[in-house]
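Internal tracking record. Fields below are filled automatically when a chain is submitted to the structure queue. Please do not edit lines marked as system-generated. If the sequence contains nonstandard residues, flag them in the REMARKS field before resubmitting.
Queue: standard
Priority: normal
Entity type: single polypeptide chain
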Amino acid sequence: MKSHAQVVIIGGGSLGVNLMYHLTQEGWTDVVLIEKGELTSGSTWHAAGLCPNFNGNHTLSSIHEYTIKLYDEILPEKTGLDSSFHKTGSLRVGHDKVEEQWFNNILSKANHIGCEMRFVSKEEASIINPLMNFDKARSILYTPNDGHVDPTTVVTQLAQLSKKAGAEVSNFNRVIDINILPSGEYEVVTELGKIIAQHVVNAGGCFSPQVGAMVGSYVPLVNLQHQYLITDSHPDIAALSKELPVTRDSIAASYIRQEGSGFLIGPYETRGSKPWALDGVDWSFDRELFEGDLERLMPWLERCMDIVPLFKEVGISTVINGLITHTPDDNLLVGPAKGLKNFWNLCGASIGIAQGGIGKYLAQWMVHGQTELNMASLDSRRFDKWADKTYCTTRAIESYERMYSFASPNENRPHGRPIRVSALHTLLSQKGAIHTVNTGYEKPSWFTTDEIINETLTWAHSEAHDAVLQECSAVQNACGITDISGTAKFRITGKDAFKFLDNLSCNKLPSKDGRIGLTLFHAPKGGIRAEQTISRISNEEFLLMGAIGSEVKDYQWLEWHSDDFDITIENLTEEWGGLLLTGPEARNILGQCTQEDLSNTGFSWLSCKTIKIDSANVFAMRVSYAGELGWELHMPSWQVISIYESLMEMGDSYGLKDFGGQAFNSMRLEKMYRAYGAEFTEEISALEAGMDRFLDLSREFIGSKNIRQRQIDGIKTKLAYLIFDDDIPAECFGNEAVFEGDKLSGIITSGAYGFRVGRSVAFAYLEPNLCEEGVKLSVETSLGSRSCHVSMSAAYDDNNEKLRS
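SYSTEM-GENERATED OUTPUT FOLLOWS
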């Protein structure tokens, strides 16, 4: 093993080897992969090798699609060997109305990925899989290009190609420790010696938390035992002219495929799942399996016998019971580790063979600073130490036991909650707030009424629709108040504060004290890194407000670019809470609690100042994401309840009403306000997002050169605002396919019903030529196709008269 390398990858499973290969494809060949045993000796070697395209996450769907192409097309071309991918296709069997709506949503997303997927009848399904009984199925989704692969074969081939390109593999060599050197490099201490690296990647699989701990990095994942069984051969299977598709049934909670002339069946038991080694896996654990426990699986195996009668006629030859990693949301942990430079995570895969292609996108991230995909849902910094062991274990069990359960947008699972709460959480819950979670943070979604106390799971409008209507009506006609404590908040101080932020911001900073500006931070290659509302207190003090979901990575972006500036960065997210008071009566209500002049001359729109409410000093901002007259009020968390109660008391006679996130989202979309993580992502810049008026290219800032080049080259996609022309009660939730006639033309980023305008609205990235007033389009939703048109102006108060009132 050599003593220096540009990159050291720790872990030789599917993810680590995939990354090694893709780094060499990006031109980084000075790579050493260190594996404590043989390649694939962790979870990879015993994996069932399934590669499904059925996925509710758009980013993962793209990764799965590429992974299948890698195994079935790229590897055979590169190696000259036959493909080891079994393109059997797959069937997904549903039994519920909501499940059918979900299938429609999945199908719409698959359209944009380019993955072939369609509904089939019971009769057609019986031809595709003649050994399965579909009599009780409600809906069946067929994906002809799915299949399975032998994990060891593809990983071995990827390793051989990597070594041929110049990478090295050090087997039977455990990493003992990692030291951070004064130079910023890493000294990786192994059983066979030390190696200095500029970049280190934690691809340690079930050992990832222990590898991360070597550099003080927290890796939130848990190992669970997963079993599948292989049956004896049966002559009816041997007599088949083609291999059976992989079939998944939600009631059986199992995948069923052909293995030789027998079956391979893997249930994800919906109760009684088994976490293992919560305090860490022993380093000697290598190519080990646990004793089979079929008793635990019997309720689901019995269901498999009902739907695959031939299963009753074969014996069980082998039971595979091995470790699988699960994260709190069952998505991978990918990208930079919190608080470190050039230390990367690549772990937490529960179906790592199908997700091996993530190596391509992490390689892009490492080499170029960003990827062609939106990695927010996989970014390991979406979790922090608040996601403790109890939380991770509880959520991992949930993820495992609901692996084949249907999804619905208004499902509100209780597992691991609450973990992060505002000071108002209990009080609002007592008043009927239904909280949902964003990055562990409890946010009020909607409020129950005397008539509406719960909602049915659905992809259409639920009972809560009418409750949200009442909340929006109050904001429009009187006043509303909502808890905005779940916002990332940073204070930047120091003599270089202006200069520092000017280097990051695509927009001009506020030029006067007490003014507010909206801006985006870009990567050098132009992708949007963050959205920030910047309040200028003075030339040496600024307050930044951003999305709670990107708190850790936003702080890290600030930190990474602070070395040449005399500044201090403070994270106020947990210390401060906040309220938004908004609506035509907001001035009258707030005026009852403060002596401050709240008139347009005394406190104009887009201005900020510290005011006294009751006896408390509160940082007030004259802005409202809901699009009505309003003030954001930020203060230490211990003041929030008192200020809230004062406002509610003074607002009672004015019709003040609580509102939640659903109403908020509806109103921001009516106003054509974009959101980070939906309209603002790392694949696009301010140009594609239609943020030209917030873009000042007369100066240099990070990403400005790339954006200027995009102007010259012309953009390939552009954000459009859609207003729907029908009354079908199905909203857009993001990533649905948009069509012009029969032509796929774009993708939805977010949508909602606009209660103030009586229409559904949405944003979508389209071909630029379609972004013109009145262009007719259709969107595939959970209830079928919906018609809409492009609008160049906001559906509500386009001239901002309400905000300025």
